[in-house]
Write a structure and sequence with these properties.
Layout: H1 4-8, H2 13-17, H3 26-38, E1 52-57, H4 63-71, E2 78-83, E3 95-97, E4 102-105, H5 121-124, E5 129-133, H6 141-154, E6 168-172, H7 184-193, H8 197-206, E7 210-224, H9 225-233, H10 245-258, E8 266-279
Parallel strand pairs: 1-2, 1-5, 2-4, 5-6
Antiparallel strand pairs: 3-4, 6-8, 7-8
Helix pairs in contact: 3-4, 6-8, 9-10
Length: about 280
């Protein structure tokens, strides 16, 4: 599997925010609305006034976390900590706050394989929910159950008496049934590196989680073909980190033949997102 470190090396925050899936706009708002709904951020419950802290594992630049926090109706009761191992050197500390609702910590998910150290304030401060968005494929299969078990042990039950609010939400993409503009070799790499949804569900159950549910959300997408190829050449997904510049150039030429753009130079595809939610027993 291509390592996350190799994939992110050389990328800047801007290179990711310019990519279709990560830049502000209709797609991000669609995803913010979905996550808000799945995490019950805007639902009135008997615990509406309870303080809630969410860990956003692998949250990158934090743009999504900021949008998620801004989208919440319960402004005073939500704080999101972005846990990101590849933070740029914008602050000399490993833990810092950019607002009263979003903070950052430079750390990998693998830290949950062991109990927190004395200085791990971000883990010792109680948190009620965890979001793992589009990064699960960067965790080695041999580590995932241990990471999930560590998360389970440290999660504080939300106090949801109805048992409906999930403790953990994973967003990933299908291993096989995808519609993205990819050539054969890229699809093979994707399949090899992307864990199956069924496998993740079983790992969560082994770690102790209950009420594990899996659904697929679909979003009709369109993008200029030239911009898609630029994103591919910039290796915006780790799939493309497995190819040389020449191979990526050749892959885009194959796409132009196999999946040509329409008369406006636009390609159309269906984005399919796998949502896996799980709950910690009260």
């Amino acid at each position: 599997m291509q390592s996350a470190a190799n994939h992110y090396e050389g990328h800047s925050a801007d290179s990711y925010e310019e990519a279709y899936f990560y830049s502000p706009g209709a797609y991000m708002q669609y995803l913010v609305d979905l996550v808000s709904k799945r995490l019950y951020l805007n639902t009135t419950t008997s615990d509406t006034n309870q303080r809630r802290r969410i860990l956003d594992i692998g949250g990158g630049t934090g743009n999504f976390a900021k949008e998620l926090a801004s989208n919440s109706q319960h402004t005073n009761n939500l704080h999101i900590t972005v846990v990101e191992p590849f933070l740029e050197e914008t602050n000399s500390n490993d833990y810092f706050t950019v607002s009263d609702r979003v903070s950052f910590v430079k750390a990998p998910a693998q830290e949950f394989l062991a109990p927190p150290n004395v200085g791990d304030a971000w883990r010792k401060t109680k948190f009620q929910q965890i979001l793992i968005k589009e990064t699960i494929h960067h965790l080695d299969e041999k580590d995932r159950v241990g990471i999930f078990r560590g998360m389970y042990n440290e999660l504080e039950p939300f106090g949801d008496k109805a048992g409906t609010v999930p403790s953990l939400l994973i967003i990933t993409r299908p291993q096989i049934y995808i519609d993205y503009p990819l050539w054969d070799a890229a699809r093979s790499v994707w399949k090899r590196n992307q864990p199956s949804a069924d496998g993740i569900v079983k790992e969560l159950q082994l770690a102790g989680f209950v009420d594990v549910h899996c659904t697929i959300e679909r979003y009709d997408s369109q993008i200029e073909f030239t911009k898609w190829c630029l994103m591919v050449k910039n290796r915006f997904w780790s799939t493309f980190a497995n190819f040389t510049d020449e191979e990526l150039e050749d892959g885009c030429k194959k796409l132009a033949e196999e999946r040509p753009p329409d008369e406006n130079g636009v390609i159309h595809f269906e984005d399919r997102l796998v949502f896996i939610s799980a709950r910690k027993v009260e």
